[in-house]
Design goal:
The chain is of the alpha+beta class. Helices cover 17% and strands 31% of the residues. The chain has four domains: 158 residues, Molybdenum Cofactor Biosythetic Enzyme, Chain A (3-Layer(aba) Sandwich), CATH 3.40.980; 44 residues, Molybdopterin biosynthesis moea protein, domain 2 (Alpha-Beta Complex), CATH 3.90.105.10; 84 residues, Beta Complex (Molybdopterin biosynthesis moeA protein, domain 3), CATH 2.170.190.11; 72 residues, Beta-clip (Beta Barrel), CATH 2.40.340. It contains seven helices and 28 strands.
């Protein structure tokens, strides 16, 4: 049986790009760049005033007590020249600094009377209050790397660079199958021996963090022929996720059926709690298949520990950051495996600590709703003590 690290590494070996597409910048928020982006010109493209004030020559300030006002510069106007000594031009924030000028003095530090300007104080060096051409980026310089997530800041930068169309990674086609004779749809009336499907909604929500929609979501009974028919109908998807039917029960047919459908097993079972029965395989070197245990908490752990790292690797993103925080309490392991348990965040002395959420096992989905993420207890550490620093994975990746 593989360790968590071994299983994750085998999954990551199957990571691949889903291609790229060109879309409008206005539709690209939270998508992932599929290209490096370079500056199309110097930024700023001209010496730009950073203040409302007066543009003048630095060398003149030791020779003149007042300066003759010879013009005005507004943002958006063409660049003017300042040729005469002892003169200045009134300038607004964002306007091009006149040729010949190398200093802007704030309007608050000035006094204008009868066309002459006096200054209350002078800067100690030239180019003060001026954004110098090319200081942010030179023409041709790389300013954004591919695999950058487009957020508010990067969207504004792309617009400044004239990138009305951007190349982003295409999103995978994902399908989810929930198996089980006892499973009913969320809107169905259930009998005492039946339960409603929750796993497909949980898994779909995780994918929506990456703006990935689910192309097919189906409920299937524990009959081999029914499971096989659904799997065969989904031959064009990139990621197929099944929940239920992967353990040791008499009706756990999923591994057998996947093999019959041409899915090559990479591994079955991992030294993890919850989630030990996890199955992973590949079909036609195209579709990756995750078969998860049916218990709701196991599904959530499997996504954060195995599926999300795979997804991020496909997009060229770095792994989600984990945090090390002190544990508020003691915890003994119930197995020899690596264990994951839900925690809230709360005060612990003078810092933030992990507050374990009491739960009744991997089927207790209500406990997870009160948590902020998962803490991990390594396989080799039998007991965690209060104050021990523990690796923590937030539900929403950083």
């Amino acid at each position: 049986m593989l360790t968590v690290t071994e299983a994750r590494n085998q999954i990551l070996q199957q990571a691949r790009s889903f291609g790229a597409e060109t879309i409008l910048l206005s539709e690209s928020f939270d998508r992932i760049l599929a290209e490096d982006v370079c500056a199309d010109r110097d930024y700023p493209p001209f010496n730009r005033s950073a203040m409302d004030g007066y543009a003048l020559k630095f060398n003149d300030i030791d020779r003149y007590k007042e300066f003759r006002l010879v013009g005005e510069m507004l943002a958006g106007e063409g660049i003017k020249s300042l040729k005469e000594e002892g003169t200045c031009i009134k300038i607004m924030t964002g306007a091009p600094v006149p040729e010949g000028a190398d200093l802007v003095i704030r309007v608050e530090d000035s006094e204008l009377k009868d066309g002459m300007v006096k200054f209350k104080s002078y800067p100690s060096r030239c180019w003060q209050n001026i954004a110098i051409r090319g200081e942010d980026a030179k023409s041709g310089e790389k300013v954004l790397q591919k695999s950058t997530i487009i957020n508010a800041s990067t969207s504004g930068l792309l617009a400044s660079l004239g990138k009305n169309l951007v190349s982003v990674y295409s999103l995978p086609k994902v399908a989810i199958i929930s198996t089980g004779n006892e499973i009913k749809s969320a809107g169905d009336i259930v009998l005492p021996h039946q339960i409603r499907d929750s796993n497909s909604y949980t898994i779909a929500s995780f994918f929506q963090h990456y703006y990935i929609d689910i192309v097919s979501r189906q409920l299937v009974s524990d009959r081999k022929v029914d499971i096989k028919n659904v799997i065969k109908s989904l031959d064009e998807v990139d990621i197929l996720i099944l929940s239920g039917g992967v353990s040791m029960g008499d009706a756990d047919f999923v591994p057998e059926v996947l093999s019959d459908c041409g899915v090559k097993e990479v591994f079955h079972k991992v030294q993890i709690k919850p989630g030990k029965p996890l199955w992973f395989g590949v079909r036609d070197n195209k579709t990756v298949v995750f078969a998860l245990p049916g218990n709701p908490v196991s599904c959530q752990v499997a996504f954060k520990v195995f599926i999300e790292p795979f997804l991020r690797a496909c997009f060229g993103l770095s792994p989600c950051q984990t945090i090390k925080l002190p544990l508020a309490g003691n915890r003994k392991k119930k197995s020899s495996f690596e264990e994951y348990f839900p925690c809230a965040l709360g005060p612990f002395g003078s810092q933030t600590g992990l507050l374990p959420i009491k739960n009744n096992g991997s089927g207790d989905f209500t406990s997870v709703t009160r948590s902020f993420g998962l803490a991990m207890q390594p396989a080799e550490i039998e007991e965690l003590k209060e104050g021990d620093f523990v690796e923590f994975i937030p539900w929403k990746g950083i």
